[in-house]
Amino acid sequence: MSPNEDQQHNLVLSVNAGSSSLKISLYSAPLQQLDSSSKSEPVTLLLTSSISSISAPPAKFSFKPASIKATTTKDESIDAIKDHASAFAHFLHYLEKEASIDKDRIKYICHRVVHGGDYSEPVIITQETYHHIEKLSDLAPLHNGAALSVIHACIDVLPSTKSIAFFDTAFHRTIPLHVASYAIDQKIAKERGLKKYGFHGLSYAFIHRAVAQYLDKAPESLNLILLHLGSGASACVIKDGRSLDTSMGLTPLNGLPGATRSGAIDPSLIFHYTNRAGRITHDPSMATNIGVTKAEDILNRKSGWKSITGTTDFGEITKHAELDNPDSSIASKNPNRLAFDLFADRILNYIGSYYLKLHGNVDALVFAGGIGEKSVELREMISQRVECLGFRKLSNERNGNVGKSGDVVEEISDPAEDEEGKKAKRILVCSTDEQLEMARECVLDHKLWPKD
Ligand SMILES: Nc1ncnc2c1ncn2[C@@H]1O[C@H](COP(=O)(O)OP(=O)(O)O)[C@@H](O)[C@H]1O
Ligand SMILES: CC(=O)OP(=O)(O)O
Ligand SMILES: [Mg+2]
To answer: What is the pLDDT of residue 112?
Structure first.
């Protein structure tokens, strides 16, 4: 049955506005709410679409129906896609004209909103919540504005659809006060909300559940070190099933470097870099209604891999990093090697620190995100370095075969190395899915989904 004829199900669209991409999944879900204790998946995937390289044009558009029988798979470069709003418009046009799915059958749209401030739960988009998210845009300059532009388009072209915002920050509300606080005047910090919020929370929630299922352990018993490595990269430590710390902070700029982001720097560097650091910049290519300073613009959009190597693609960087060259001075001659080694170095900083925060009681180290899921070389480098902490030895064969089985979670360390069960710490790769996390939450949430 085509989605248009199926009246027994609602269509749910999940939209993930990342810094460099727009990832969209369409699901069908039962009209009434499922029992949250039910083991069966509450939603069924119908299709996925992705628009990548939005910040490094030409953008690449892909459209893949989930059905095996499907013949429509599209992969092409589109010059007309300039930002997240035009990317979404292109998707909707394609959905109707090429895939012949009536957009008015979509009843719910889940939007990933990176900065949710103190929101601890998803919210239905109303004038009030829209403006609240808008006020937080300066704290996620590459994200909130982009998500709002898609939300705006949905309100315009799909007026009878319910738009719901799901926040990256919500997962990290369990971070203890002393970890989330900065060592600054606490009165000012409180008044202005200057604290660590943390991001990639929808991805971490997905990984946490998927790994619990894979290890066949209760989610609340797990101690994990998670690495979400994509255009934006972060690390997170989960203790007893709750976020204990994460590397991003007040904004997604802190912590690990990314495609165009510097990651953590000495705060004083800003003033040595440019004496115009504090001026507000109005770059027309920036999402509307965002007031960021010159310094924020440089550190968010003109730094990271792009500034060191000229590309935002970590796959390209790896290819040219001469990883086989043992010469210790190679990084001074090869910017790709510099970027690779610098990234690995910062990742090790977090793994070491999070290992200590867990008193060494770690169930698994998990790689995820575009780089985490695809970079065989980075996983190899990190896995070799963590062996001294009691992690199982890497299996080169397993590492090289990641993604081939189609499983959501795969172990890349070697269980055979653990004959006596002494080295229980595993190294895993999780194919994370923020869209599925939102759709599932939406259908299982009593406040969002009809009971009868
Ligand atoms: N084969 C590869 N090896 C290493 N990195 C890759 C490979 N393919 C893609 N990537 C990286 O994955 C990034 C995208 O990650 P993703 O998590 O999908 O992005 P976003 O942060 O926009 O959600 C790309 O920018 C690229 O650097
Ligand atoms: C929070 C963040 O950096 O997200 P993304 O990696 O999707 O850009
Ligand atoms: Mg992402």
So the answer is: 97
pLDDT of residue 420: 65
Nearest residue to 28 (alpha-carbon basis) of 448, 452, 439: 439
Residues 198-217, mean pLDDT to the nearest whole number: 98
Q: How sure is the predictor about 33, in pLDDT bands with cuts at 50, 70 and 90?
A: low
Domain spans of the chain? 9-167, 216-263+307-434, 267-302
Looking at the CA of residue 21, tell me the nearest atom of ligand 2.
7
Average pLDDT along the chain: 91
User: Does residue 199 have its Cβ closer than 6 Å to ligand 2?
Assistant: yes
| Model-level ipTM above the cut of 0.85 | yes
| Distance, CA of 45 to CA of 26 (rounded, Å) | 6
Q: What are phi and psi of 124, to 5 degrees?
A: -75, 140
The verdict on domain 216-263+307-434 having CATH code 2.40.100.20 is: no
pTM of the prediction?
0.94
Measure the CA–CA gap between 110 and 241, rounded to whole angstroms.
Answer: 25
From 24, 207, 314, mutation site for ligand 1 pocket: most ligand atoms within 8 A of C-beta? 314
Cα–Cα distance between 84 and 55 in angstroms, integer?
A: 10
**Same fold? 9-167, 216-263+307-434:** yes
Structure tokens at 355: 């290992």
- Cα 348 to chain center, whole Å? 20
Nearest to residue 99, comparing CAs of 70, 129, 57?
70
- What are all long-range contacts of 77-81, with beta carbons under 8 Å and residues at least 24 apart? 78/51, 81/51, 81/54, 81/57
Say if residues 88 and 22 touch (Cβ distance below 8 Å). yes
Distances (CA, A) of 182 to 250, 256, 372: 10, 18, 29
Closest CA to 362 of 203, 217, 175, 222: 222
Q: Say which CATH superfamily domain 9-167 falls into.
A: ATPase, nucleotide binding domain (3.30.420.40)
Angle, CA of 64, 376 and 414, to the nearest 5°: 110
Task: For residue 434, say whether it is annotated as part of any ligand binding site.
Answer: yes
Beta strands 123-124; 106-113: pairing state: unpaired
> For ligand 1, atom 23, which residue shows the shortest CA distance?
18
DSSP, residue by residue, 217-233: --GGG--EEEEEESSSE
